[in-house]
Amino acid sequence: MPQCILNIALDTPLNACFDYRWPCADGARPQVGQLALVPFGRREVVGLIVGVADTSTVPADKLKDALAVRGQLAPLSPQWLALAGFAADYYQRPLGEVALPGLPKNLRVLTTVALDRAIKKLAKDASVHDGTPLDMPRLNEAQQRAADAIGGARGFAPTLLYGVTGSGKTEVYLQACAQVLAREADGQILILVPEINLTPQLEGNIRARFPGVMLATLHSSLSEGERMLHWLAAHEGKARIVLGTRLAILASLPHLQLIVIDEEHDPSYKQQEGLRYSARDLAVWRAWQLGIPIVLGSATPSLESWHHAQSGRYRKLELRERAVKNAVLPRVKLLDMERDRPKDGLTSHLVAALKLRMERGEQSLLFLNRRGYSPVICCESCGWISNCTRCTSFMVLHKPEHRLRCHHCSLELRIPRHCPTCGNVDLQPLGRGTQRVEEGLQQLFPEARILRIDADSTRRKGSAQAAFDSVHRGEVDILIGTQMVAKGHDFKKLTLVGILNPDTALFSQDYRASERLFAQLMQVAGRAGRAAQSEGGSVSEVLIQTRYARHPLYDAVVNHDYDHFAGALLEERAQAALPPYLFQALLRAEAPELATAIAFLQAAQACLAHPAITINDPIPMSMTRVHNVDRAQLLVESASRPALQAFLKEWLAALRDMKSRVKWSLEVDPLDI
Ligand code: ADP
Ligand code: ZN
Ligand code: ZN
């Protein structure tokens, strides 16, 4: 029987692919890019064929037979394999660990028969929307210029669409998409959005605009069955628009012609566990590889993208005005909490502004990026505070549930009746989270319809969407929420945004904190005044309660001055030699004892040197202990990306050879350090 050797990537941390034997009757060989079922240890697993050969260097008696090849699935394209290969190489992970988790689970576990049935169902998939297309609104001049530039671009053309909040970036994407769909007979478009709670609005919009065009969505709240159908629709080229969150960047799209990254600055494009990739960065590589246009849109671009736009590597298109006629950017004011002392967390000025909106039937939004009732409870007589016993953090008071919760290890306790140290029964909440602000508002405005939106209030599937819908329908007077409410939403009746407690981020050790705070404030401020100002209606306002009213960051927010602020930050970064002028990787280690983790990092620090690389000393992570594990980190830096990449490859091999029992991981281009 003629046979061949399949080289197969498997989802294991072992940095290698594996050879298997496969009988090739009548000369028909499996193809690279197909999936195969193979024995691995005591299990049977699905792997990806990355090579087909006549011989193997593995001795014949050690070679095992592959069990099946998934013939009915078209092979993944060489371009897709190259994308997975690039990601594996760049983020220093085995190919199998990158390529296989990117595929729907069902493809990997289902038997051949079940897979067939899935594929048949797809043929009948009803995700094509019938009807006449909804009219495209007339674009304003700046929008039209942007849509034409994006839709008409050929070859690798990265564009930064820098448009103020409410400038109608979505409309630009959609009309650029329309141009591409009309021009490229079976062209596909990938649209990435940061978070799934923003997608339904956009999804509905796309369906209404492009009837007859199949849309597939890819995000983590799909069921496995749905995910597989949508993934296959993209893989087979049937879905012409794929809308998804960061994981969709690894979708198989054989006819990809355009990539859109909405809110490109958003940290959720960065995967924060396992393969810590940046979907935005991979998207730019993918567009380069395929020689297609990509557009990165934001009102507050990341400094990385802004830097590329300034240096001419990306083309910059600007939308300086709001798209809706007579809608203008809100007036931003700072409320000095030293002069106007807050009661129940609210200054008298903010209370008066809320009252005015209530009287006029307009909506208000209060933004506080801290959920729970209070971040800690304490005993005033002996000084006890509610520390988590497993983490370097506090137990947060959740009053409606009568619980203390650690947001890092999920430890839950009943609220103690008395102080565990001295027995005092009068334990006090310290500080303020969204639940406490909600409680204060209810007392202040008993007649108001108040809605809180945060991770706690939206635990049930679909409840976030229901909550946003009720805001859109005007059933809410005052909305209070965390960063969940800050992004993307087009709330038409909102004319007041109050921002509580943003000061802490001003003094963070993290050098990215001010970039992030600025973006967050601009985004949440951007929720106000999105409709035309009605006659007799309020001027839309953003009120920021602060103790540091003179801080230059707030000055930039007041003036809606991203350009200037970004320029100043970039200058600081250049002077301090920080990204984007420097490239970094972070080695993390964790162990039950901090000393063990540090010792491992010290060994790692000593094991390899390179003149173009700086290896800093190991330090405990700022939140050192989580769930009874101590964590430390070591930062590696270089002014040259290729030098860093080359160093990391060699270094990781050396680290693996150390065979330490300490759990460690490497992150390239870390966001949080
Ligand atoms: P952004 O994403 O830039 O914050 P959106 O795309 O959400 O802004 O658009 C803001 C609002 O402006 C939406 O309600 C949208 O329907 C509206 N809009 C966009 N373009 C136009 C246009 N050309 N004419 C009228 N309204 C528009
Ligand atoms: Zn006490
Ligand atoms: Zn904890």
UniProtKB/TrEMBL annotation:
Domain Helicase ATP-binding residue range list: 150-319
Chain sites annotated for binding Zn(2+) 1: 379, 382, 419, 422
Cofactor note: Binds 2 zinc ions per subunit.
Keyword Manganese applies: no
UniProt-listed Enzyme Commission number(s): 5.6.2.4
Keyword Lyase: no
Binding site for Zn(2+) 2: 388, 391, 406, 409
TM helices/strands, residue ranges: none
Enzyme class (EC, first level): isomerase
Reactions it catalyzes: ATP + H2O = ADP + phosphate + H(+); Couples ATP hydrolysis with the unwinding of duplex DNA by translocating in the 3'-5' direction
CDD domains: DEXHc_priA, SF2_C_priA
Cofactor: Zn(2+)
MF terms in GO: hydrolase activity
Keywords carried by this UniProt record: ATP-binding, DNA replication, DNA-binding, Helicase, Hydrolase, Isomerase, Metal-binding, Nucleotide-binding, Primosome, Zinc
Assembly, per entry: Component of the replication restart primosome.
Described purpose of this protein according to its UniProt entry: Initiates the restart of stalled replication forks, which reloads the replicative helicase on sites other than the origin of replication. Recognizes and binds to abandoned replication forks and remodels them to uncover a helicase loading site. Promotes assembly of the primosome at these replication forks.
Family to which the UniProt record says this protein belongs: Belongs to the helicase family. PriA subfamily.
Name of the molecule in the record: Replication restart protein PriA
Species of the source: Janthinobacterium fluminis
Gene that specifies this protein: priA
